[in-house]
Amino acid sequence: MNLVVYLAGEIHTDWRETLTALAKEKNLPFTFVNPQTNHDRSDDIGEAIVGKQPNDLYRDKVASDVNNFRTTVLLEKADIVVAQFGEQYRQWNTAMDVTTAIQANKPTIIIRPDSLIHPLKELSNKANVTVESVEQAIEVLAYIFE
Amino acid sequence: MNLVVYLAGEIHTDWRETLTALAKEKNLPFTFVNPQTNHDRSDDIGEAIVGKQPNDLYRDKVASDVNNFRTTVLLEKADIVVAQFGEQYRQWNTAMDVTTAIQANKPTIIIRPDSLIHPLKELSNKANVTVESVEQAIEVLAYIFE
Amino acid sequence: MNLVVYLAGEIHTDWRETLTALAKEKNLPFTFVNPQTNHDRSDDIGEAIVGKQPNDLYRDKVASDVNNFRTTVLLEKADIVVAQFGEQYRQWNTAMDVTTAIQANKPTIIIRPDSLIHPLKELSNKANVTVESVEQAIEVLAYIFE
Amino acid sequence: MNLVVYLAGEIHTDWRETLTALAKEKNLPFTFVNPQTNHDRSDDIGEAIVGKQPNDLYRDKVASDVNNFRTTVLLEKADIVVAQFGEQYRQWNTAMDVTTAIQANKPTIIIRPDSLIHPLKELSNKANVTVESVEQAIEVLAYIFE
Amino acid sequence: MNLVVYLAGEIHTDWRETLTALAKEKNLPFTFVNPQTNHDRSDDIGEAIVGKQPNDLYRDKVASDVNNFRTTVLLEKADIVVAQFGEQYRQWNTAMDVTTAIQANKPTIIIRPDSLIHPLKELSNKANVTVESVEQAIEVLAYIFE
Amino acid sequence: MNLVVYLAGEIHTDWRETLTALAKEKNLPFTFVNPQTNHDRSDDIGEAIVGKQPNDLYRDKVASDVNNFRTTVLLEKADIVVAQFGEQYRQWNTAMDVTTAIQANKPTIIIRPDSLIHPLKELSNKANVTVESVEQAIEVLAYIFE
Amino acid sequence: MNLVVYLAGEIHTDWRETLTALAKEKNLPFTFVNPQTNHDRSDDIGEAIVGKQPNDLYRDKVASDVNNFRTTVLLEKADIVVAQFGEQYRQWNTAMDVTTAIQANKPTIIIRPDSLIHPLKELSNKANVTVESVEQAIEVLAYIFE
Amino acid sequence: MNLVVYLAGEIHTDWRETLTALAKEKNLPFTFVNPQTNHDRSDDIGEAIVGKQPNDLYRDKVASDVNNFRTTVLLEKADIVVAQFGEQYRQWNTAMDVTTAIQANKPTIIIRPDSLIHPLKELSNKANVTVESVEQAIEVLAYIFE
């Protein structure tokens, strides 16, 4: 039984690499997928494909078309979603990915620092598990196969 | 035909009053519902009901239990969701409410200032309409009955 | 038992008035709703609300945002969809409305002239009933209450 | 991770061959499926199986039975739908396939020439991405695996 | 709380009148709906609306279009389905109505004589309750309001 | 906005009367429904309708047919489920009612004494709110209308 | 792409063997599954497992428990349902299997002799394709892979 | 065709080993999964991952977070659920697992001693099959492949 895990959230730290390495170390049968983690590429992807748009609003519009397309394809294939929230940025698309997973009955783990307990309280409440570190998240994932 | 509209988002400005007044002025057949808009009450509601908790994490936990209960009841009755995002706070529960509505196929309007175009681009992309003001939102709502 | 009927399709003939009048004559307990039937208003609605867009593509984009918002609200409330296809225009949003209704298990009647039998064959095949005139459609609707 | 892509729409140009060749060139892990692309076969399939029908209406009826059977089987297996609209024909079954995919939460790309922007505006608005060429569509598909 | 009860099945006995009268006697808050119970009208309805068809197969086809339209509208509004199976006819549309109700999670009562226990065993097994008489069925319905 | 509240669980104490009285006192717009609360009637209902069965297994079988029929009808109409677990009995049908509500996305409140914290931990974890008294439950319900 | 085909219906003729042999001849990538086709075994399976029951009603009850269990498992795995109706027996479980498949959006083919056109008209109307012979059914199945 | 079977319920007897061994003996193509069957580990898993909690209520809360996460992942992958209820403990999470499976249309077998017929009657009524021993359960499972 191989499970697909979608790694949502923060793209400016190397938490995905850490988590993936730990899973490999433990020989856990997961396939990891994720949103575009190159921030510039993600902002530019719309214009890169359909060409220069008349203003920033529409530059963002065509980028989000393609980003949401990608996310929807991969999220649909995922059995589990792990999302890391960080201090930087508003990360509303992370909140959107997590909620989409919850509504589709996909089990969800949130990783967040103590400082975000309060603003994330309603979303944490709907996710299955909330932890503070990648190490804790991998223990939750490993528990499936105990 | 009376429609229920859930007004998600910002609770520190009077946008709900403005929107409701405009709807009344135009005799639009809407019933408006909303999350708890008293911030302190919303933070305190858990302990107010089940008593003092051992720490802030669990104070937030019991509050979010009751807030999510309320939101789920009202969102389930809503035909339409209008959400205003503002500059203040991270508003992840607003993003959660909007995504929940989208996943449940409820038509959704986002109101946000220009400054939030970029961080909201993926969520705007999934909502039906994004506008910049309450006045524009009410015009979208009024269009249903033209 | 009052039923809501969404009248999709052709907006350049008076078939909705004819059908509504016939329903009234027969005292059938239907509430009729429809897409925006003023073609110019429907094309202009986006810019009328959010202002002039940089080009025709985006003029159409903001119009379709609001038109789809309206349609989704009303279609969701409908118990039945009746759609008239005519010779003019490509009417892809009519095909979209009918398919949306079919996928949501809403009973559907298509009205179309003989000349459109062939191009509409797959869609007719999925709708419940296909007829050639408003008079026939009203007989199908009346049959519910016999 | 192999993904199934349903190629809906136009059957009188070789866009499927172009798209498939480009995917192969880029080693993208897609399996492509499509509706019957032989127009005569598609029109004749009903009578070919159940025999001569009394008139054209019923010739079309038995053909659409079998075409919709095929399409439903393959669309159900698809992870993604790409649909090309062209200038010729009314293509209501293409609009039907795209809407069916959207309602089933399957990510969707529309390819259409500039001349069809206006009549397709509501359907484009519901699809994830709209582009003008097969080359752009393949870039969107490739982006999933970046 | 008023509940809609769809009375499926046998149309050659007066069981619907008996059941309805008993419900009235007990002041039970039910609205009863049913398929077309005039057998000839039900067989003729297609041709009555769209005109004479080339053969019996297509006469039946157009009749079943309209009958299924009617049934789907009313079944969708029903909270409960009661179906009486009798000795006469094959009653496959009754089995279809009951199964449709079961799949849509609508509580279902089957009424059938002892002689039909064996052929109905799998369908009875999926319905909530199977009884032998209208009097027993009305007791089950009355139990909701005790 | 009137909401239907299904009161699942314990039938040997008067918690439903207390809760209903408190709701009336506060003028809360709820309609309360519940399972059969007369234990003997609930055990006997099957045989009372279809007659004496050959053994206790089948006496229980016909009773549960009718009880599940009733529960499904009323649970389907409910917007909210409140369930009280007590020390007595195994109450597996209460656990079933609560889980059915949760799976159908109906907001759920569990009332249970401290002594049941441990055995109910997984079910509490899925319900929206868990409290210890009817008074607390009514405060959660009242919060919807603040 | 391998597809699972559930062969519902008639168990007293060798139509399944004919169909399977034809599929093999044409190298069609189907896996065929079916209900229990040994009539005696199917009637006896309940008592064979849980022991002698007090009467025929309950003998049938325990048999249908196990038969419905089997059918539900296999139908859930099926991509396509083919059902043959014959002259013998009432075949209500075949009607139930077909309707279950239709409600679950599984493409469905009915095979029936001319003599059953009329009693099957409403069910045929909901299935995708109705044919008169196994040979025709296999042509419909083969068309998927053209 | 390999099927995944989730073995819910009792963790203090070796029924899972017996059932698995019998399946192996019969060469049945099942993959078995189960909840955490080490009781202490299951009670401790929350604190083992996120650390000591302020009291028993919250110790149980964090344990149930992780247990429900695990169960949801595995139940979602299951084609069939078999649940054994025993005399010991209240087993509300077993009732929850079974109901979740039933609501998700997953075929379900309950194993229980005679002494639990009465308290389990409503849940048994919703499951497909109820038996008294592992040997009987394996016969039901084997019947799928006859």
Summarize the structure.
In chain A, 50% of the residues lie in helices and 16% in strands. Chain A is of the alpha/beta class and 146 residues long.
Describe this structure in words.
The structure is a homooctamer of 146-residue chains. By secondary structure, the first copy, chain A, is α/β, with parallel strands linked by helices. In chain A, 50% of the residues lie in helices and 16% in strands. Chain A has helices at 15-25, 39-50, 56-77, 92-103, 121-126, 134-143; strands spanning 3-9, 30-33, 80-84, 108-111, 129-131. Chain A has a five-stranded parallel beta sheet, with helices on both faces. The longest helix of chain A has 22 residues, at 56-77. Chain A is globular. The two termini of chain A are 13 Å apart. Chains in contact: A-B, A-C, A-D, A-H, B-C, B-F, B-H, C-D, C-E, D-E, D-G, E-F, E-G, F-G, F-H, G-H.
Would you spell out the secondary-structure blueprint of this structure?
The structure is a homooctamer of 146-residue chains.
Chain A: E1 3-9, H1 15-25, E2 30-33, H2 39-50, H3 56-77, E3 80-84, H4 92-103, E4 108-111, H5 121-126, E5 129-131, H6 134-143
Parallel strand pairs in A: 1-2, 1-3, 3-4, 4-5
Helix pairs in contact in A: 1-6, 2-3
**Residue share in helix of chain A:** 40-55%
Order of helices and strands of chain A: EHEHHEHEHEH
Question: How many distinct helices of chain A?
Answer: 6
Largest interface: A-B, 33 and 33 residues
Rg measurement of chain A, Å: 16 Å
Q: Return the average pLDDT of chain A rounded to an integer.
A: 97
Uncertain regions spanning at least 5 consecutive residues of chain A: none
Number of β-strand runs of chain A: 5
Strand order of the largest sheet of chain A: 2-1-3-4-5
User: Largest beta sheet of chain A, briefly?
Assistant: 5 strands, parallel
Quaternary status: homooctamer
C-alpha geometry of chain A: globular
Structural class of chain A: alpha/beta
N/C terminus separation of chain A: 13 Å
Strand content of chain A: 15-25%
